Amino acid sequence: METSHGFADPSIGKTYRRLRFLAGAALVGMPLLTALSGFFSGHSLQDSLSDYYFVVKDGGVPRTLFIMFLAFLGGVLFSYRGLDENDNRIHNLAGLFAFGVALFPMPCSVSDHPYCQPALLPVLHLPSAGLLYLSAVASVVYGGGPKLKEVLNSFPDSQTWLKRLRRIKIIPLVLMTIGIVTFLFHKPFIGYFPGISWIFWIEYLGFLGFGIYWVRLMLLINAANSEGRHLQALRTEKAQKEEPAAPPALRKAVKPAPQIEQWSDIP
């Protein structure tokens, strides 16, 4: 039977929430793991995450982790069903851009990476990376969209829930904004702070913010689902207590009580 909020079947919802958690963990951990693999291969922190595609001859572990991260992230974002159509479109585009970063490696520079070989359409690498970053920002700003806010508004203490949703956005947006501002204005400071891998840390701020947002949103959704099921149980219990008793002969004539609205878990 179709549920009132139009969200997914409970088992599918659990799958979406698990994917969101895994994507959040990958966003936070995989860039650092990739950099760590480069360190153990005898290479210092690279200028950008994309440099790990060429840092080791024949790719090695750093390239494997770099491609695994982008392929997993792209697959999750593209296949993930958003909380409404706009949320879905934002994540679909982000998934395509993540595939683009992996499919179109950065331009090959033998002076930086002696073993590199030119790859497919490197001119598309930077636009894909930039649009992935901006898609992540759009996802955080959209915050699940009006459908999620509508559900949170249905709770008795709706303002508390909406404030919690707004707080979830603060840290990711601060990290992403710092990343964007640093990207735009860091060049004059390169000479004063040599040896800093500016682009790597700018990229990581974006991934970190996006990952934190997904994990915290998942925790909010889990709490909202628990609250929704609790409120439904209370309404059902109240309706059962208020239902008038009638003799067996008159039960058919008694007007049935209105059906209790069923809670549908937010995926």
TrEMBL record:
The chain crosses the membrane at residues 21-40, 60-78, 90-107, 119-142, 168-186, 198-219. The keyword Cytoplasm does not apply. Residues 236-267 are annotated as: Disordered. Keywords: Membrane, Transmembrane, Transmembrane helix. It comes from the Bacteria. The keyword Zinc does not apply. This is DUF998 domain-containing protein. It comes from Chlorobium phaeobacteroides (strain BS1). The lineage of its organism: Bacteria, Pseudomonadati, Chlorobiota, Chlorobiia, Chlorobiales.
